[in-house]
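Running this now, will post back.
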Amino acid sequence: MLRIAGAAAGAAGIGAAGVTAAAPASAAGGTFAHPGLLHTQADLDRMATEVKAGAEPYKAGFARLTANRHAQSGWKANPQATVYRGSGSPQNYVTLYNDIHAAYQNALRWHITGDTAYADTARDILNAWSAKLTGLAGSADRFLAAGLYGYQFANAAELVRDYDGFELARFQKMMLDVFYPLSEDFLADHNDAYVTNYWTNWDLTAIACVLATGILCDDRAKVERAVEYFKHGEGMGSIKNAIPVVHSDGLAEWAEAGRDQGHALLGVGLMGTICEMAWNQGIDLYGYDDSRFLKGAQYVAKWSMGGDVPFTPFSRKKGAINGWSGTETTSGVAAADPNMVRPIWAMIANHYTKRRGLSASYLTRIAAKAAPEGGGGDYGPNSGGYDQLGFGTLAFTRPKTAGGKTTASPSAAASASPAASSSASAAASGSGAAAGSGSASPSSSASPLGGRSGDLASTGSSGFVAWTAATGVTAVAGGLLLLRRRGQVRRAAGSDGQ
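Update: finished.
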């Protein structure tokens, strides 16, 4: 049973692979920390204090925010009754993600400046959408819309949940009726495709949406569902399938590194988002399985900066259950462009180096290279430029106390133990310590395949019929991959019925 720390809870310890929290939440009315998605009240107070003092790099990060056209108090919402994403539909999802980023950026700007004009703008955008939106439609890409925009919408709402005039109950209903069902359906059935049909990011968007919805709506069962899938899900987005091989040098392969760099970066950003939202409720996914995410993020950071990384070839089955099927093989790591930048690194680097006091050389270098991070609208006009909320330099830069440790875990006042295992430390520094328990051998099978580059919408079902839209892979001990049809050899169900 997960234990979720409340905002008023006393200090509790979070180790590298487990969590102890002050009080359990209940689905009907448990104790959740609010604000408690990507940002806690302590985070928001830190941003405001440092920006007011003119301290760097907060000042530079705030300048990126104020320069963004979405962060202006004059933004007017354009809500739609139905949002479409995917081929064969009258796609209008651009309107949705632009409004979400405007709401988020205005809400963040309000917390930092205290100017209620920005809070009013964020509130009005969110209220307009919850009053009108009734559905998401389109091809299989509708699952991406539900996941990506669902977790982002929830984060914007969390920042104004107690602000005068915000229709929280109506917004929660929209999340539960429109976004959450598609994400949960995807995790359960993968659009009636083979579980290996859809790439890692499809699962990760759905996990992020389910988790964010659970926290926003104080629903423990949804939070538990997301965490259980992250740890043990059959699809490619669960952590041991997304990061299937841990090498003796302490780095771990990222499955989509065999596909293309853009999607690998998206996946790292999504997994970091999931870990951060969970952390702010006293749940340590950052440290799960001997800090496996640290090892995978270090791998992607090294590769993205032009470093050589190993890759284990693998094959995956594609297609629909009782329909078209085929096999696709990925033989090596994709090419990487050191100039490709996404606003994903500050959050991850600060967690491992400042909260945990680890030396994460590749993360530190790539975060510095990307700083100061911008947000939606700063990384191109297409949907890929809006896949992360961004502004990590402003939001996640953290002080380091004596001994390389910060005082305590976020809003729940739960403190992280900086003492990770020797292999986690090796992954952080890039040294050659042996991998910890549960890791796969370097020679074991991995999991992706090279798709064409571009934003997630254009690559999700490239070259396949509309139902081809999600994939998953199951890793067993030693890294052996089992390609399974729906219903075969299913993992033992947890409390959520998975």
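Confidence is low (pLDDT under 50) at residues 1-29, 401-498. More later if anyone needs it.
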